[in-house]
Specification:
The chain is an alpha+beta fold and 123 residues long. Helix content is 37%, strand content 28%. It has one domain. It has three helices and five strands. Strands 2-3-1-4-5 form a five-stranded antiparallel β-sheet. Strand 4 and strand 5 form a beta hairpin. Helix 1 runs antiparallel to helix 2.
């Protein structure tokens, strides 16, 4: 199964949008580093932040996952980023090139738990 985790960029209050814009370079660098370090596991960076409207941004990673344990590293990474940068995250799976969200976690939604997310994904 191909899963994804994105930084939640839509429907943000003005204050949170401003913080996201300020944190963007650090978030991009952290996600690029994670993708580079895990290239052997087919982790792919999702980085479409060209729009002036952050509501249109797509920032995160995708990777194959067949076992619950495969979710621990990316969920830990996004939990750390959520604490550092005050973001929430969307997690789901990709089917027929369409993203299907299954859960949200982060600074405001609450810490993500890889075991529960794996259950939502059906792993």
């Amino acid at each position: 199964m191909l899963i994804y985790i994105l930084v939640a960029c839509d429907r943000l209050e003005e204050k949170r949008e401003k913080k996201l814009r300020q944190s963007l370079p650090e978030l991009q660098a952290a996600l690029q580093a994670y993708a580079d370090e895990n290239a052997a596991h087919k982790v792919t960076l999702i980085n479409d932040c060209e729009s002036d409207d952050c509501e249109d941004w797509q920032l995160g990673i995708s990777q194959p996952a067949t076992k619950k344990i495969h979710l621990n590293p990316p969920v830990d990474l996004f939990n750390r980023l959520a604490e550092q940068h005050g973001i929430d995250c969307e997690v789901g799976y990709v089917e027929d090139d369409t993203r299907e969200p299954v859960s949200y976690f982060g600074k405001y939604e609450g810490k993500g738990e890889a075991f529960l997310i794996a259950e939502y994904l059906g792993l």
